[in-house]
Design brief:
Blueprint lengths: L7 E8 L7 H18 L2 H6 E8 L3 E9 L16 H14 L15 E6 L6 H14 L3 E7 L5 H4 L6 E4 L6 H21 L16 E2 L30 H5 L5 E7 L5 E11 L3 E4 L1 H4 L4 E6 L6 E10 L4 E6 L20 E6 L7 E13 L2 E6 L11 E3 L5 E8 L7 E5 H8 L5
Parallel strand pairs: 1-2, 1-4, 4-5, 5-6
Antiparallel strand pairs: 2-3, 6-7, 8-9, 8-11, 9-10, 10-13, 11-12, 12-13, 14-15, 14-17, 15-16, 16-19, 17-18, 18-19
Helix pairs in contact: 1-6, 3-4
């Protein structure tokens, strides 16, 4: 160990959620390759720096293990679905234990690692995020620098993880490229400090154009009174409208439900939405009433998940809650603070005719009363199999559960309103 060549481990955690599709993910790819190329031209960095890339979306993967610069290969970045930053931090924690050499018996290990995080959204897995963020921040085993890009990125959430947070709201072309160039400069500064036998702790300086440092005061709008504590049972809602592409990426929280008879034969299908991260799924009562057993298909997962139990149902509301033994990313349920209006845009996600997680758009065309039940009439096309699917507003919040349509007119469809959802399933909503 005495002749061990100390390394400077660099971990790049890159958001690959659905909203990163297109220009953003291409900039990230180019930025990483440019970063590596610049570091290779620095003799001290070439000798010292090792790089790893961890991606997070619906899934979390270390696409590049900790590798010396000369052997680094272009990582595969595939945007898809949600933002599982909490699980990415868990993977980072594991990598720090297994890949980084620590001081032992008076012998020096690797230099203190860096983790650079780039995200354009908010963590989908709030409970995991809180657990690992607080753990990593308290350990002080890694220098963490977090970057929030775009209006939907919640910089105040990142303050729970590290005091080194920068942000840009514009996310214009070139911002992500500039960010990685800045990372390269910061790493080379650290290698220079190492050469001078100085500490390699990190201080924010010389930010890329258009970026600014986030402080506790910037986060004063948080509901946590600047404590940066996050309630793991609360979904962080965006206050900015989403694009149709971003709304479509929420399909990862919408499931297809297989309906089986007493022999196990598949006799039909419906849809459902994740409302609780412990496997709770909301669907229509008439979906579970049509069979004896049920199975669940989840986007981006192989295989079928059997239903553990039908927990409750309400024929009048046409709602039911089932559970599977698998963690889910809940969709936020609309809070009703702003009244829904006719003409308002909406998006429906479900599995019509068994076509898994189809997305359609339309408007709210009216509100109908059936005794005490409020139904939202909307124009987004649905068909048999869509029952139990999500009707979303443009902020990605569930305003209704699609329940029925009519064959006697075009695009006359109905959804059980968020009011009944909250009344019926309040104990299960995350």
């Amino acid at each position: 160990m005495s002749d061990y060549q100390r390394r400077l481990p660099i971990y790049l955690l890159v958001d690959c959620s659905g909203s990163m599709r297109g220009t953003r993910i291409e900039e990230a790819k180019r930025g990483i390759l440019s970063l590596v190329s610049e570091l290779k031209n620095n003799p001290q960095a070439l000798e010292t720096v090792y790089i790893s890339v961890i991606t997070f979306s619906n899934t979390v993967e270390q696409v590049s293990p900790l590798t010396e610069l000369v052997k680094f290969k272009e990582p595969e970045l595939i945007p898809n679905g949600g933002t599982m930053l909490g699980k990415a931090l868990g993977l980072l924690s594991d990598c720090l234990k297994t890949e980084v050499k620590h001081s032992d018996n008076g012998q020096k290990g690797d230099w203190k690692p860096f983790a650079f995080i780039l995200t354009d959204g908010s963590p989908s897995d709030i409970s995991d995020y809180q657990k690992y963020a607080e753990k990593l921040k308290a350990s002080n085993d890694v220098n963490i620098i977090a970057c929030a890009v775009g209006y939907d990125a919640k910089a105040d959430m990142l303050m729970l993880l590290t005091n080194n947070v920068i942000k840009t709201d514009s996310l214009s072309n070139g911002d992500i490229t500039n960010y990685f160039s800045w990372v390269s400069s910061s790493v080379m500064q650290s290698t220079n400090n190492i050469r001078r036998n100085q500490r390699n702790d990190f201080n924010l300086s010389s930010l890329p154009n258009g970026f600014e440092i986030v402080t506790n005061q910037d986060s004063s709008h948080s509901n946590t009174n600047n404590s940066h504590k996050v309630n793991p049972n609360v979904i962080i809602k965006n206050d900015v409208e989403k694009s149709y592409e971003e709304l479509a990426s929420l399909a990862s929280s919408v499931v297809m439900i297989g309906i089986h008879d007493e022999t196990g034969e598949l006799i039909g299908s419906g849809s459902g939405i994740a409302i609780g991260n412990k496997g709770y799924i909301l669907t229509n009562c008439h979906v579970v009433g049509a069979g004896v057993a049920f199975s669940v298909k989840i986007e981006n997962y192989e295989g079928i998940f059997p239903t553990v139990e039908v927990i409750k149902y309400h024929p009048k509301f046409d709602l039911a809650v089932i559970r599977i033994d698998h963690d889910l990313t809940p969709l936020p349920i609309y809070d009703g603070k702003k009244k829904l209006v006719r003409g308002q845009k909406c998006v429906a996600i479900g599995s019509p005719l068994g076509l898994f997680n189809s997305v359609s758009d339309g408007i709210i065309s009216g509100f109908r009363k059936d005794d005490d039940l409020t139904l939202i009439q909307f124009t987004a096309p649905i068909s048999h199999g869509s029952s139990g699917g999500a009707l979303l507003n443009t902020y990605g919040e569930v305003i209704g559960i699609t329940t029925s349509g009519t064959d006697r007119g075009e695009n006359i469809n109905f959804a059980v309103s968020y009011e009944q959802i909250r009344q019926f399933a309040s104990n299960f909503i995350s």
